[in-house]
Amino acid sequence: MRRLTVFALSAGLALACASSPSPSGTTTSATLDDAFTSAATESGAPRDLLVAIARVEGGLEMPKTRVVNADAHVPVAGPLQLRRGKLDTLALGAKLLGVSEVDIRTDSDLGLRAGALVVAELGKRTGARPNDLASWEKALEDLSGYADQHHRAMYAHRVFEALGAGGTFEARGGEKLTLVPNVRALEVDVTIPEQTFSTMPEFAGAEVFVTDCNNKCDTTRDGNSVDYVVIHDTEGGWDASVATLQNDPGKSVQYIVGTDGAVGQFVPESYTAWHAGNYWYNQRSVGIEHVGYYNKTFPDAQYASSAKLVAYLTKKYGVAKDRAHIIGHDQIPNGNVMAQSSPPCSSSPSTCESGSSYGGAGNHRDPGDWEWCTYMPRFGGTCKCDDIWNLWNCSSDKTQAFRCNNGKVELEQCTAGCVVEPIGQDDQCNLAPPPPDDGGAPPPADDAGSPQGPHHAPGTQQPGNGDQPQPGGCNTSSSRPDMSLGVLFAGLFILARRRRAPR
C-alpha cells in the first residue's frame, strides 16, 4: 500500500447567496456558478466539494442543455457526471430528485442538483461531516463508481487534490468559474492499495481496468479472426466512461483512449466485447472507445495515442489499413434491417449517420467529428474521398489540409499554418518559406502578406463540423445527439448541422 497526502479545505466554507432551487424538472440558475451555489444550498453538500468533483470529471464545460438518447454507451448527467458505475449514481440521482434519468441528462443544471443530492446522500451513508471535508473520502470512493479499490481511492485523492490547488477554470458558455485554494488546510492521507492483475495489458503502457465478463462480453470469438477495428466515442469524461464500461451490464469494449492519450484495457482482445450493436462484427473486431463528444474536436494527443494502438492491432492481426476495415460505429450494419454480415457503410459519414441502416442496432452516430484523413496516415493507412470535401479543408490543429480531387485524396502539410475561410471556398494552407541562402534575403511577401502566401485559396469548414466557429479553427454546433437518435430526428438534425463530404 501507499499513502498519498493532499490538502483539503476544512471548516469555514461559506455558501454565497443564490437563486432559490426551483421545483423538480426545471432550473433557474443564470450561471453555472449560481447553479453550484443553489445545488449546495438545496442538498447540504459542500459547494467547493461539488466544484472540485466537476473539475476532476471534466464536467464544467458541459452545455446547459443536450439532446440525449437512452441507448448511449456512456449515459452521464450533469457536471458531476452521474453514471452507471458500481454504484448507479445516475439512477440514484433521478430518484432523489423525483425526475427521469433522461431529464437530468438533458438539463445539466437539473443534473447538477441531482448530483449534489447524491453526494449529500453518500455523505450521510458514510458518516461525512459538513465542516470536515476529509470525512468525505469514503463518499467520494462510492461516487467514483469504479469496481476496484485502487481506482476508487485514486479518484478520492484527485478530488482532494483539486480542492487543495483551487484555480479559475473554463466553464460552459465562456464562463470562468473560480475555486478558492485551501487557506485553512487539513492534511488528508488517502490510502491507495497497490493494483494487482491476473493478466497484464496486451498493449504496452495500457492501464488495466478489471472487468467481469458476466452479461457484458463473451470469453471467446468462436474461432473468428480479427478483421476490423471499430472507433467509438464515449460521450462522457474519463472517469464516467471507465466506471460505466467497467460495470454497466450489456456493454463492453477492449480499449479506451483518453483526451491526454492515456490508454486503458477492459477485456482481452481474444474476447468478444459487446460494443458494435452487431454480434457478427463484435466477434470479428476490436473496439476502441475515445473519451470525448460527438461534435467536439478530438485533441492531437488522443489521435496520436489511438493511432499507435491501431498500428499495433493491424500488425498483430493483419487488419487492412483502409476505411473498409478501420471503421466508425456509424458504419456498422443494423442487423434489424439487413444481414449482420453486410459490408460496413462506405458512403460519407453524414450519409452513414442518416436513416436506420447503420450504426448497429441502436443507430449510433459516433465517433462524430473524427478526422479520418488526419488519423489514418498516422499508422500508414488511407482515408477515402467520401470522408472529406472536394475543397481544401484545414485539420483541427491547422497543420494540414486535405481534399478529394478527381476521386483521390490529397493531403498537404501546412508548415506555416492553415486558415479556415468562409464556406464554399478553399481553406488557406500556408507554407513556410525555405531558409535563405547564405547572405541572401527571404523571398518577398505576396499580396496576402505571407512570405509565400497561401498554398490554396480561401475555403470551407473542416468536414464533419457544424456552423459555429470554435477555437481550434474548426466549426462545431452547440447541439448534439448522445451517440444515437431516432431515425426522423437524426435525419433532420444531421441536415441542419453537419456538412461532411458532399456525396
SSE layout and pairings?
Layout: E1 2-9, H1 32-43, H2 47-57, H3 89-97, H4 101-106, H5 108-126, H6 137-144, H7 149-165, E2 167-170, E3 176-179, E4 185-192, E5 207-208, E6 217-218, E7 228-233, H8 238-247, E8 255-257, E9 263-265, E10 272-273, H9 279-282, E11 285-290, H10 300-317, E12 326-328, H11 349-353, H12 372-375, E13 393-394, E14 400-405, E15 408-413, E16 418-419, E17 428-429, E18 468-469, E19 475-476, H13 487-497
Parallel strand pairs: 5-9, 7-11, 7-12, 8-11
Antiparallel strand pairs: 1-4, 2-3, 6-10, 8-9, 13-14, 14-15, 16-17, 18-19
Helix pairs in contact: 1-5, 2-7, 3-5, 5-6, 6-7
Q: Please, could you describe this protein's structure?
A:
The chain has 503 residues and is of the alpha/beta class. The chain folds into 2 domains: 2-15 and 25-171 and 186-192, Lysozyme, CATH 1.10.530; 197-388 and 463-503, Lysozyme-like (3-Layer(aba) Sandwich), CATH 3.40.80.10. It is built from 13 helices and 19 strands. It has helices spanning 32-43, 47-57, 89-97, 101-106, 108-126, 137-144, 149-165, 238-247, 279-282, 300-317, 349-353, 372-375, 487-497, and strands at residues 2-9, 167-170, 176-179, 185-192, 207-208, 217-218, 228-233, 255-257, 263-265, 272-273, 285-290, 326-328, 393-394, 400-405, 408-413, 418-419, 428-429, 468-469, 475-476. A 6-stranded mixed beta sheet has the order 5-9-8-11-7-12, covered by helices on one side. Strands 13-14-15 form a 3-stranded antiparallel beta sheet, with no helix packed on it. A hairpin with a 2-residue loop joins strand 14 (400-405) and strand 15. The chain is globular and about 65 Å long.
